[in-house]
Amino acid sequence: MSQSQGQCDEQVMVEIREVRRCKIASGERRHRAFTGALRLADGDMLVFYREATDHWATDDGGVMMVRSTDDGRTWSAPRRIFSRSRWSSAAHHGPAQLSDGRILLPLTLIRHFPKEHERERELQIHLIVSADGGRSWSRSVRLGPMEGWRWQNNYGRVRETSDGRILVPGGGQKIGEEPWYSGYFVSDDGGLTFPGRVDVAQGLADEIDMTPLPDGRWIAMVRDEKEPYHLHQACSQDEGCTWSTPVPSSILGHCPSFLALRSGTILLGHRQVDTARPYGCTLSASKDGGATWMHVSDIYVSPLKEWDSSYPSMVQLEDGRVFCSYYGQYQDGNSDIEGITFEVAE
Q1: CATH no. of 15-345
Q2: For residue 11, pLDDT beyond 60
Q3: pLDDT tens digits for 202-217?
Q4: Domain ranges of the chain
Q5: SS (H, E, C) the chain
Q6: What is this structure's pTM?
């Protein structure tokens, strides 16, 4: 992959037309954030998100779930499906339904230590599973930190390969090393255990998402914590066993979220962090397998010059439309989970 890949191609346009917006979850003042949308084989949609007092400062966050049976027009009352005393937990853009019908939901758990403690905080990655469409969930199983790692967490859609491997994306930091790693945990037994690990990037941040392409390749986007916050792109020719060296794309953003449409077009939702424009949630697209990218549309514009919003997660509906969940700007102690349905014109 050359340094020129990821530049905008203005010859082939992708446009969207908004169909409707909805409020997925709201209520008393809370920090609601970090959405993960999933469309099940039976047509139901689930959205997972974190609800807490604030943005990771207080160790009281729990994982919430809502359900829609009408393509996102209406939503059930939120239900807390996971929490742990004195920890804050979250489900990001990550849930997937496997070919056998099970739903895998990775979780990030964080707790802070008192000031006199040698460590500021602890991060773990856990996994819960549902075999009945999200109505009940297994007890959590800890995937990390693995031996030799200081911390590990989750961000990115769970993927199932053609040979049955289950990949759970996430980042972390190794003991005695400064750089952060982005990659994924690997299961060869259908998601029962995850002893393997593949790293895609070193020295970037802990958010990574990846998607298979019609030609058999996979692409990944990785967040960078260094300004100007270019998302970095890598490619795999062997379903995620090995990867090219990530290179900066033209896209400025955080929290990359892929959706490969049935047409072959790739959508990428992400937080808008270009200081020349309002912050919020935006959409980019590629019609050539990630070789070039174009800006499509801002799907949410923050009323403040602050980053605390976005984290999109998209699914394609039966009629070809796209549903995207995200969280609105956190202000005055509150943020809501919102959704947009749109048509894609190519």
Answers
A1: 2.120.10.10
A2: no
A3: 999 999 999 999 999 9
A4: 15-345
A5: CCCCCCECCCCCCCEEEEEEEEEEECCCCCEEEEEEEEECCCCCEEEEEEEECCCCCCCCCEEEEEEECCCCCCCCCCEEEECCCCCEEECCCCCEECCCCCEEEEEEEEEECCCCCCCCEEEEEEEEEECCCCCCCCCCEEEECCCCEEEECCCCCCEECCCCCEEEEEEEEECCCCCEEEEEEEECCCCCCCCEEEEEEECCCCCEEEEECCCCCEEEEECCCCCCCEEEEEEECCCCCCCCCCEEEEEEEEEEEEEECCCCCEEEEEEECCCCCCCEEEEEEECCCCCECEEEEEEEECCCCCCCCEEEEEEECCCCCEEEEEECCCECCECCEEEEEEEEEC
A6: 0.95
